[in-house]
Design a protein that fits this description.
alpha+beta; Alpha-Beta Plaits; 2 domains; 5-stranded mixed sheet; two-stranded antiparallel ribbon; 14% strand
């Protein structure tokens, strides 16, 4: 906001300071009954000094305000973002997720949740090293975000798990998003220092807000159960919580 309106602020404050200084000078001149020559000298001086001083002082003040705002935004971003993947962190996800969950329940709108786990991540991480594991996590997060809308929210849930909240999304569309993510991750390929090839996959559990979804934690538990079934079914799969056909009405 400050960046969009710097020039109006400069001009406005300069004109205001000139008008205030000139008004004070008029009062003083009237009280002292100065000669016409002294009157005009004082008027020019009272208008000229603010015109010279106000712009640089205003510029400095605006720069300090902008830098303070940038620092505040950076601190907020760091507090809400996972440093490795760029996705939101678990804490921010729960704070925002609870609010969006309550909003969807109140308005009886659809909302879905995806829980993703990178298959065999620990084994690959132990075998090929943490550096490769970090590259995999970063790429998985980027693949997820590329398949999601701007209004959706992706967070690193913990370790190799990610969670995505999809507002205004029913089960059919949530399954489509989950399948796009699964396919996008399956297309990733990494080469190790030893010349080996690593192709990560994810198992995805899908849960949708229903009349039985009373808490946000409960919805997460449904997605977790679905993700666990996807693991048991052979991994690199998408599964949904049974009984989700009954939507809010």
């Amino acid at each position: 906001m400050l960046r969009r309106g710097l020039w109006p602020v400069y001009v406005g404050l300069t004109l205001f300071s000139m008008a205030a200084s000139t008004s004070i000078s008029l009062v003083i001149n009237a009280l002292l009954h100065r000669s016409p020559n002294d009157f005009w000298i004082s008027m020019v001086t009272s208008a000229g000094i603010p015109a010279l001083i106000t712009p640089p002082v205003t510029w400095l003040a605006m720069r300090l305000l902008i830098e303070a705002e940038d620092a505040r935004r950076a601190a907020e971003s760091m507090a809400a973002t996972d440093a490795l993947t760029g996705a939101f962190n678990r804490r921010h996800f729960f704070i925002t997720g609870e609010r969006r969950f309550a909003h969807a329940r109140r308005l009886r709108e659809p909302a879905s949740l995806l829980l993703l786990d990178v298959d065999d991540f620990k084994a690959d991480n132990d075998l090929h090293g943490h550096a490769l594991g970090d590259r995999v996590l970063i790429a998985v997060a980027q693949a997820c975000m590329a398949c999601m809308r701007e209004s959706d929210m992706l967070a690193r849930y913990g370790g190799e798990e990610f969670v995505a909240l999809l507002p205004a999304t029913d089960l059919t569309h949530a399954l489509q998003v989950a399948e796009r993510i699964r396919a996008a991750v399956a297309d990733l390929q990494f080469s190790t220092a030893a010349g080996a090839s690593v192709r990560p996959t994810v198992s995805v559990g899908v849960a949708m807000l229903t009349t039985e979804s009373t808490t946000f934690d409960g919805l997460l538990a449904q997605a977790d159960s679905a993700m666990y079934r996807a693991k048991l079914s052979g991994k690199n799969r998408v599964d949904a919580t049974p009984g989700l056909a009954r939507k809010l009405h």
